[in-house]
Amino acid sequence: MSYKLPDLSYEYDALEPYIDEQTMRTHHDKHHAAYVSNLNNAVAGTELEDVDVTRLLTKLYAVPKNIRGAVRNNGGGHANHSLFWETMSPDGGGEPTGALSDAIKQTYGEFSSFQDSFSKASMSRFGSGWAWLAVKFGGTLVVYTTPNQDSPYSFTGDIPLLGLDLWEHAYYLKYHNLRAQYIENWWHVVDWDVISSRYAEASTRAQSWSGDKD
Question: Looking at the whole model, is its pTM more than 0.85?
Fold first, then answer.
């Protein structure tokens, strides 16, 4: 088995005017593709070729030291971007409903307070990285950021629901240095239906997760 670049479920220009076609083509076809290629090269000829990327990142401590850095960076890049594409849609925006809405309100109060917390966290990340909405062990929601291509799976054991790419390649062609404007407009393409489905699965898993590092 080799890791593969996932197809987008929408056209490159489908997220305009919020994310432009040129950025999507370069981001998906060049940047994400490079992470996939580099990850395949790193694990070629090892037993890790057949390991799901999520499990690979969760068990990063067990990856041989000579390729651990490459797996951390490129496996994280592959997993993070795969989630990023999946949780955006030309029909996105608005607010979540149902259990996810209830969980956000329980943790953050109004949805607008959650958005504010997420956006502030995104702005606070110095340099490149990601902002996350994740489910912790026990089912609690949490917002935080990670540097570079680090994944919540690797260092906290949390289950990411939503991730925002804060690398300049995600927004510079359209927004230049205006990260705040990129973040504000990105909310219009967030697919809460997909994220709600992820939450339903993740919250069940988090309730029963042992956290063992076996």
Answer: yes
